[in-house]
């Protein structure tokens, strides 16, 4: 199979149903599984699974939003419909696995702009399947899934033989239509959770009439004012000292003239 290409056409205003090819073979049949968290709140389980859509309580609504990062085509931040806009797909180390190769796993964490929460998504054009690579882990790991088990980041990235569990299928489930999901962690921040407008709408430049002075500019103005005050004060002080000395010298000069006239006029 030819190399995949960056998936640049995923719509941030769409909730996607995600599954993997090992359980749902193609787009021609009704999918039986969906990428989801454990739906039982009584079970302590931080892992993702590709489990059945239908349960005893009805169909599982577990969908994914792909928020693109404009700087890199095919790079996204992923949100999960059950955890809200302030949580994103990340990677974590889990120690409950028997095999070391499965301990790095996708997980959901509070949103930041850290590389652990950035995902490069590639599309295989020949069969419309996708590959997920975490930016922090790099190309040496592909998102994979153990049968009936946990989703993990696999270090086995060889395309031969064909690894269907590393090929993911996606289809739109519904529109997002929620302004809360149009903002993400600021791209110029490495680990903060501050928000800024992103890819669903172009960021609006702030008018220069409303820009505030930077702290450096304010400090420069303050220093300039202080120096100005010092110069004026110094000038006034010098003037008054000069004037005082002038008066003193004038008085001293008058006394010296009188004394000298008396001395020079005395007889030898």
How would you describe this protein?
Residues 189-201 have a biased composition (Low complexity). There is one protein chain. With 268 residues, the chain is α+β, with helices and mostly antiparallel strands. The protein has one domain: Trefoil (Acidic Fibroblast Growth Factor, subunit A) (Trefoil), CATH 2.80.10. It has one helix at 215-264; strands spanning 5-6, 14-20, 33-37, 48-52, 54-55, 58-59, 64-68, 75-80, 87-93, 104-110, 119-124, 129-134, 142-145, 151-154, 168-175, 183-185, 195-197. Strands 1, 7, 8, 11 and 12 form a five-stranded antiparallel beta sheet that branches. A two-stranded antiparallel sheet has the order 2-15. The chain has a two-stranded antiparallel sheet with strand order 3-4. The longest helix has 50 residues, at 215-264. The model is unreliable at 188-219 and 248-268 (pLDDT under 50).
Q: What is the gist of this entry?
A:
This protein has one helix and 17 strands. It is of the alpha+beta class and 268 residues long. The chain crosses the membrane at residues 217-242.
